[in-house]
Design brief:
Layout: H1 2-24, E1 29-35, E2 47-54, E3 60-66, E4 76-79, E5 89-98, E6 103-112, E7 121-127
Antiparallel strand pairs: 1-2, 2-7, 3-6, 4-7, 5-6
Length: 128
């Protein structure tokens, strides 16, 4: 029961943090998918970096991604250096992978504290 309560308090806290940070400013960013290789043989694993180039300084971001599940299966999502590039503490969600539907959802990250990021960098690594 105690673990359930802690999980719910954590979820509410995270939601409130995202709500507060989201109220300040919503900016656009250029998002580029950069595969580790251009040619892949069937069943070969490769990595795709989600590379972010912000238009202005940002402290968090969120994305969902749809893909052709008949051609690609996502094995895992890992953290890139984007939000922690200035050494700031961060909170990230690696999201939900649904390989049947071809959807990555609820992938987000936020800088905890007053720091914001302007330099381009990889936000997440998708291993397929």
């Amino acid at each position: 029961m105690r673990l359930y309560l802690i999980k719910n308090i954590t979820k509410v806290t995270i939601f409130l943090l995202l709500l507060v940070f989201g109220c300040f400013n919503s900016t656009a960013a250029n998002v580029t998918l950069k595969p580790s290789t251009q040619i892949v043989t069937p069943s070969e694993d490769f990595t795709v970096d989600v590379f972010i180039t912000p238009d202005s300084a940002i402290a968090g971001l969120q994305f969902n991604l749809e893909f052709d599940s008949s051609k690609i299966q996502v094995h895992d999502v890992s953290k890139g250096r984007f939000l922690s590039s200035k050494g700031a503490s961060t909170f990230v969600s690696y999201g939900n992978i649904d390989n049947n539907a071809g959807i990555l959802s609820d992938i987000y990250g936020v800088v905890l504290g007053p720091s914001s990021i302007l330099e381009p960098e990889s936000f997440k690594h998708l291993r397929t």
